[in-house]
Design goal:
Four Helix Bundle (Hemerythrin (Met), subunit A); about 140 residues; elongated; mainly alpha; single chain
Length: about 140
Amino acid sequence: MVDKNILVGRVEQIEKHLRKIAAYRRMSLEEFLRDEKTQDIVEYNLFQIVNHFIDIIQHIVVDEEYGFPQTAYEAAQILADKKILTAKDLEIFKNMIGFRNVVGHDYIEINKKTVYDILTTGEKEIKRVLSRISEKIL
């Protein structure tokens, strides 16, 4: 059985990180691209949001005894198979993991316009997936 206190804590952390970057959504793309400090703040908070999502998804899969996924992608797929995530949610989540991997592992140069796009339009998708998980589990 899922420890709802852990999930609620992670949801609260995601909401906290969303609040931290909210003010930067008002910046124009040009302002954002000129401000490396803002870029770092936004990237860090988005990175943390994805980490909390991964924790949530892995907790659900393991606690509900759906399996022992080796990767976050696998955990997300399991939740999609169990109808906790929709196909659209799964796509969003996989994109989030990909972004996290780029930021966290420095695989390639981070496209700052992509970061800006996530900042300005991604909140809706983040909240959509979070809401879906909360509805099904909490």
